[in-house]
Every structure is written in C-alpha cells, then in structure tokens.
Specification:
150 residues; 5 strands; alpha+beta; Aminopeptidase; globular
Length: 150
C-alpha cells in the first residue's frame, strides 16, 4: 500500500529559498538523478531558482524521500504548463508512493496556478520511470529533439 509523504516547498513563489535545511537534505537524493551537479549544489540551485525554477520535496520525518524541481512555462502549443525539470524518489525507498505523492502534489499546484498541462521529459533509457509515468496518466505527445552546443 502506498504511503502519503508530506510535501514541503523549499522555495517561495519568488524563487527564494525558504527552507534551507530541506534544500541541504535534498542534495543526496537529487544527485541520484543528476550526479553531475557541481560541488556547490546550493549555489547552482539558487541560480536555477533565480531563473524561475521551484523545488518541492517529499519527506518522511526529517529525511527527504523525493525531489521535484519544476517551473511554470507558457508556450504556443500547450499554453500555460507546469514543467517538471527533475523528479526523483530516493533509490532506497522506491515503490512506496513517493513519486505518486509528488506528481499528485504538482498536479494540484498546476491546477491552482491555472496551468493547462503538466509536462516533463524523461531520458529514453529510463524505462522504469516511463512505466510509472504511463501508470500515472502521462502520455507522449511529441518527440524532443536536441543538439548539444558545447
């Protein structure tokens, strides 16, 4: 049976870090998805927050069990959407409802923010994540193309 995990917003509506202790606790879980983040994790995240991203974490007692980095974007083909940059549940605690809790929380936020869609990208190799996203009602409406410039 899936458990409910309290979700805490690490950032305020303006992108300021309102929960610095939770930001620090999020780092090891976030690095499971993004191991290439720089040593100055908090500094890098503050730059990302300054550019519109927000962070919410699923918690259990004083531990972070899941991390969601997200932002609201408006474009011509979807309208206003809540875009999820990163969504990760702690490897040691997967299949307990952490991802489901975070997605439900983000959907509620998206609706409150007047969004028309909730969207995310997922690496083609992440087949377990894809099964989860399909189970949660997400679909693949388009291909994502990219050209690396560095």
């Amino acid at each position: 049976m899936a458990l409910e995990f309290p979700v805490i917003d690490v950032t305020g509506d303006d992108g300021s870090v309102v929960e610095p202790a939770w930001l620090a606790r999020a780092e090891p879980v976030h690095r499971q998805l993004r191991p290439g983040l720089p040593a100055d994790y908090a500094g890098r995240l503050r730059c990302i927050f300054d550019n519109g991203a927000r962070m919410s974490v699923a918690t259990e007692d004083t531990s972070v069990r899941g991390v969601a980095l997200w932002r609201v974007i408006e474009n011509t083909w979807e309208g206003r959407r809540l875009y999820v940059d990163d969504l990760v549940a702690d490897e040691a605690h997967r299949s307990r409802g952490i991802g489901k809790t975070l997605l439900a929380y983000l959907e509620t936020r998206a609706r409150r923010l007047g969004c028309d869609a909730l969207a995310l990208d997922s690496g083609t190799q992440r087949t377990d994540a894809h099964r989860f996203y399909f189970r949660e009602g997400l679909v693949i409406p388009a291909f994502s193309f990219r050209k690396t410039l560095t």
